């Protein structure tokens, strides 16, 4: 797996700092590309395709706060290269599901439908797959801050991006030592890590004066100060540059003789030369229409609580290791985001995960005051192997997919968009992208 280097001639998926400038590439034949889904992956794909000279139409329900891209933790987690299923998870699962003080939730009536996915998901909790995922994701995530800067350069979205550490706070020395294998793996992939005593970090950030025994800071990460406003600014730029946005419910994909013909919506059909499927957790049904018939895609739901006008602000994003949630400074508020809940995509938000986060906040910040609290729930698209699908579909000659990013959709969105633009434009890329190949979920011929 290639983790860096210069891009091949004519390619958009660049990795060196000079090649990250937003450029317009000439394509031999300008195509009309239809993108299903206007989250960060879809919008990034739209902008890079537009810069490559294509005509682009984005189709989405445009339901704002319901998008996962709206409510994520706002962290550019360049070092998030470990999958959720790791060795030993299966043993811990019963206790985690039965305890109200663990960050894992399940709507039990959903278990019969979830079980086949869950068994396959847990089958990847192996050391060899963790190493495989780390190699693949380090390529996709390691330069995420530069990729966001390049995507947003010259747009109203630039102001939301900052270069900050992503820190992990450990309440005990034992919990810090338990995470040592993950730090070793990240260092092996070139990540710069700083470990501090809790008191030393507390001197930097008084909000965490006594909470942690150890704090680990991952350098060269980043933060988006308002993910919803950031996405809206990127979308506005796409439209200002001539892109089309259609607010519509996507119902089906019309395919004839192995070729995409039109996206079927409640506003009528949307024809095009290429289709890019980027609907996040809602991609499963449409992916089957593009020949990806062995895919099991589940909604791994996450929640956030926001504290508005707090009496103090943290200096940088902090993963609270004990509760597996992230505390991020936002514009005028603190966002506390995390947990994993397996439930139907369409099921309403549940009280359990929200109450869990509220208890964690109260324990972490007993002296913090704020004006009011707001709540949100979103849906992460989870694949059984915890890796996204990025690339062309073999069964449909003009079909591409870009979904399944699980916890790293915001982080990986711009680079995924570059890769999609390269692929649609037939620009070569010298990186090994086989880990993301949709063919791994396509029906055997």
UniProtKB/TrEMBL annotation:
<keyword id="KW-0812">Transmembrane</keyword>
<dbReference type="GO" id="GO:0005737">
    <property type="term" value="C:cytoplasm"/>
</dbReference>
<dbReference type="GO" id="GO:0016491">
    <property type="term" value="F:oxidoreductase activity"/>
</dbReference>
<dbReference type="Pfam" id="PF01266">
    <property type="entry name" value="DAO"/>
</dbReference>
<feature type="domain" description="FAD dependent oxidoreductase">
    <location>
        <begin position="32"/>
        <end position="423"/>
    </location>
</feature>
<dbReference type="InterPro" id="IPR006076">
    <property type="entry name" value="FAD-dep_OxRdtase"/>
</dbReference>
<protein>
    <submittedName>
        <fullName>D-amino acid dehydrogenase small subunit DadA</fullName>
        <ecNumber>1.4.99.1</ecNumber>
    </submittedName>
</protein>
<keyword id="KW-0472">Membrane</keyword>
<dbReference type="InterPro" id="IPR036188">
    <property type="entry name" value="FAD/NAD-bd_sf"/>
</dbReference>
<keyword id="KW-0560">Oxidoreductase</keyword>
<keyword id="KW-1133">Transmembrane helix</keyword>
<feature type="transmembrane region" description="Helical">
    <location>
        <begin position="69"/>
        <end position="90"/>
    </location>
</feature>
<feature type="transmembrane region" description="Helical">
    <location>
        <begin position="29"/>
        <end position="49"/>
    </location>
</feature>
């Amino acid at each position: 797996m290639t983790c860096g280097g210069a891009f091949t001639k004519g390619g958009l998926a660049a990795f060196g700092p000079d090649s990250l400038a937003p450029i317009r590439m000439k394509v031999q034949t300008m195509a009309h590309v239809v993108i299903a889904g206007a989250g960060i992956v879809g919008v990034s794909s739209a902008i890079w395709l537009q810069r490559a000279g294509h005509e682009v139409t984005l189709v989405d329900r445009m339901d704002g706060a319901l998008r996962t891209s709206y409510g994520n933790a706002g962290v550019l987690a360049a070092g998030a290269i470990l999958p959720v299923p790791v060795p030993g998870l299966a043993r811990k699962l019963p206790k985690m599901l039965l305890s109200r003080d663990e960050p894992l939730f399940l709507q039990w009536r959903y278990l019969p439908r979830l079980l086949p996915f869950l068994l396959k998901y847990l089958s990847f909790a192996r050391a060899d797959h963790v190493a495989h995922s780390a190699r693949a994701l380090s390529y996709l995530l390691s330069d995420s801050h530069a990729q966001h800067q390049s995507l947003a350069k010259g747009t109203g979205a630039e102001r939301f991006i900052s270069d900050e550490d992503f820190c992990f706070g450990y309440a005990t020395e034992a919990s810090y030592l338990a995470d040592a294998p993950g730090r070793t793996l990240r260092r092996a992939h070139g990540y710069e890590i700083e470990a501090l005593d809790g008191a030393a970090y507390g001197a930097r950030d008084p909000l965490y004066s006594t909470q942690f025994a150890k704090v680990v800071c991952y350098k060269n990460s980043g933060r988006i100060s308002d993910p919803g406003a950031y996405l809206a600014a990127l979308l506005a730029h796409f439209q200002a540059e001539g892109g089309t946005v259609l607010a519509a419910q996507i119902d089906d994909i019309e395919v004839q003789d192995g070729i995409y013909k039109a996206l079927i919506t409640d506003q009528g059909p949307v024809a095009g030369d290429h289709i890019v499927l980027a609907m996040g957790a809602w991609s499963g049904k449409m992916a089957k229409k593009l020949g990806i018939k062995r895919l099991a895609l589940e909604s791994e739901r996450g929640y956030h609580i926001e504290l508005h006008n707090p009496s103090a602000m943290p200096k940088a994003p902090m993963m609270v290791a004990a509760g597996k949630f992230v505390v991020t400074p936002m514009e005028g508020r603190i966002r506390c985001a995390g947990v994993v809940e397996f439930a139907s995509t369409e099921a309403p938000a549940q009280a359990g995960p929200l109450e869990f986060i509220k208890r964690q906040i109260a324990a972490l910040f007993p002296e913090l005051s704020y004006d009011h609290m707001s709540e949100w729930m979103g849906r992460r698209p989870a694949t059984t192997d915890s890796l996204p699908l990025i690339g062309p579909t073999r069964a449909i000659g003009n079909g591409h997919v870009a979904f399944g990013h699980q916890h790293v959709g915001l982080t990986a969105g711009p680079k995924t968009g570059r890769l999609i633009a390269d692929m649609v434009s037939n620009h070569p890329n010298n990186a090994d992208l086989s880990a993301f190949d949709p063919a791994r979920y396509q029906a055997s011929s």
